[in-house]
Design goal:
Number of domains: 2
Largest sheet: 4 strands, mixed
Number of helices: 15
Structural class: mainly alpha
Radius of gyration: 28 Å
Strand content: under 5%
Shape: elongated
Strand order of the largest sheet: 2-1-3-4
Length: about 375
C-alpha cells in the first residue's frame, strides 16, 4: 500500500508539472482539435473543389451535358474559356485541369469515329492531378455512354451490379481522415508526454531528489505511465465525442467503453516506448530527432494511412510487433463497424502483451540509467 501511495503521489506531481508546461498543453490542444479537423476536411488524396477550365468548341447537347457534370464537391463550376485563355490559366496555376472538347464531337461520336478530348493537367498539384484525371475520364465516359444509349436502342445487360456501401454509405473521406488522425495523435502524445517528462526530470536535476526518497525506478516509471496515459485518454475521448462525432459528424456505432479500453492498453505500450526514448535521449532536441525515426514507421506502416495488404510480407510480419498495428485494427473495427469484444479481443490481448514487453525493457533501461547516474 505504501508503494501504491508513492506511485499515486508521483503521478499527481507529473500532472502538476504538465499543467505548468504551456508548450505541451498547446501541443495537446492542437493535436486533439484543430489537427483532427484539418485532416478530416482536407484529405490530401481526395479530390475536393478542384478548379477546371473548359473549352467547348462543339456547342452541342452532348458537350453541354459533359460541362454540367463537373460540379461540387469534386470540382468547382468549370470556367468557360477559349483554348488560349485556358492554357494561360493552367500555366498561372489558376486551374488544375483544362478540358478541350473538339469541334463536331457529338457528330463524330454518333458516326463511330472515336473522337478524342484533350485534357491538360497541372501535375505540380500531385494529389489532385493523380486522382482528378481518373475522375474526369470517368465523368466524360459516363456522360457519353448515357447520351448515346438515350439515342440508340440497346439491349439491357444480362447482369446489373447493385452496390451497397456499408459503414460509410456516402464514401465521405472526412470520416476516415478524422479517425486516422485521432489514432495517430494518440500515439504521438503518449510517446511525447512521457519522454518529455523523463527528460525534464534529468534536465532539472529532480530525478536525483526522487532517488533520495523511498521510491524505486519502478515507482517513477509507473507514475509517469499512469499520469500521462490518463491525460491522453481523457483528451482522446473528449476529442472523439466533441470533434470527431459532434463537429465532423462521424457516427460512432461501437462501444465507447470498449474503445476506451483499447486506448488505455495502447497508451500503456506507447508510454513505455516514451520512457525508453527518454532514457536513450540526453536532451529534448535529441528526443525530437529520435521521435521522427520511431513515430513515422509506427504511423505509416500500421495500416491506418495505407492498407497493410499492399506492403511486403516482411514489413507486415515485422509490424505485428508494433502496438499501432493492433490499435488501428481495433479502433477501425469498433468506430467504423461497431465490432464488439468477441471480434476485437485478439487485438486487445496483443496490445497488452506488447505493452508488457515494452514496459519491462524500458524499466530495465531506466534502472541502468539511474544506477549510472547514482554512481
Amino acid at each position: 500500500m505504501a508503494r501504491l501511495a508513492n506511485i499515486v503521489h508521483l503521478g499527481v506531481k507529473e500532472l502538476r508539472s504538465l499543467a505548468h508546461d504551456r508548450a505541451m498543453l498547446v501541443l495537446m490542444g492542437f493535436a486533439l482539435t484543430a489537427a483532427i479537423y484539418t485532416a478530416a476536411s482536407g484529405m490530401p488524396d481526395t479530390l475536393h473543389r478542384a478548379p477546371l477550365a473548359l473549352t467547348d468548341e462543339d456547342h452541342s447537347a452532348l458537350s453541354v451535358r459533359i460541362a454540367d457534370a463537373f460540379a461540387p464537391p469534386y470540382f468547382l463550376p468549370p470556367a468557360r474559356l477559349d483554348a488560349a485563355a485556358a492554357a494561360r490559366g493552367l500555366d498561372a496555376g489558376r486551374y488544375t485541369f483544362a478540358l478541350d472538347i473538339p469541334p463536331h464531337f457529338e457528330r463524330d461520336v454518333f458516326a463511330g469515329r472515336a473522337p478524342r478530348i484533350a485534357l491538360d493537367v497541372d501535375a505540380t498539384r500531385m494529389a489532385q492531378a493523380f486522382t482528378g484525371s481518373a475522375y474526369v475520364q470517368a465523368i466524360v465516359d459516363g456522360k457519353v455512354a448515357e447520351f448515346v444509349a438515350g439515342h440508340r436502342a440497346a439491349a439491357p445487360p444480362p447482369i446489373a451490379l447493385q452496390l451497397r456501401n456499408r459503414y460509410n454509405p456516402a464514401l465521405d473521406p472526412a470520416w476516415f481522415g478524422a479517425v486516422v488522425e485521432l489514432i495517430n495523435n494518440i500515439t504521438m502524445l503518449g510517446i511525447v508526454l512521457t519522454c518529455a517528462a523523463l527528460i525534464r526530470e534529468r534536465e532539472h536535476g529532480t530525478i536525483e531528489h526522487l532517488l533520495a526518497m523511498p521510491v524505486t525506478p519502478l515507482d517513477i516509471m509507473a507514475a509517469k505511465v499512469w499520469a500521462m496515459g490518463l491525460v491522453v485518454l481523457l483528451g482522446a475521448m473528449a476529442s472523439l465525442l466533441g470533434v470527431v462525432h459532434a463537429l465532423i459528424g462521424v457516427p460512432l456505432p461501437g462501444s465507447l467503453a470498449l474503445f476506451a479500453l483499447g486506448v488505455a492498453l495502447h497508451l500503456f505500450a506507447v508510454t513505455s516506448i516514451g520512457i525508453f526514448m527518454g532514457t536513450v535521449a540526453r536532451s529534448m532536441p535529441q528526443a525530437g530527432l529520435l521521435l521522427i525515426l520511431v513515430l513515422l514507421p509506427l504511423e505509416m506502416l500500421s495500416g491506418g494511412t495505407t492498407p497493410r495488404e499492399s506492403m511486403p510480407e516482411a514489413v507486415r510480419t515485422l509490424m505485428l510487433g508494433a502496438p499501432t498495428t493492433h490499435f488501428v485494427d481495433l479502433a477501425q473495427a469498433i468506430l467504423f463497424r461497431g465490432a464488439g469484444l468477441a471480434v476485437v479481443w485478439p487485438s486487445l490481448l496483443a496490445l497488452a502483451a506488447i505493452g508488457a514487453v515494452f514496459f519491462i525493457i524500458a524499466l530495465a533501461l531506466l534502472r541502468r540509467a539511474v544506477a549510472r547516474a547514482a554512481s
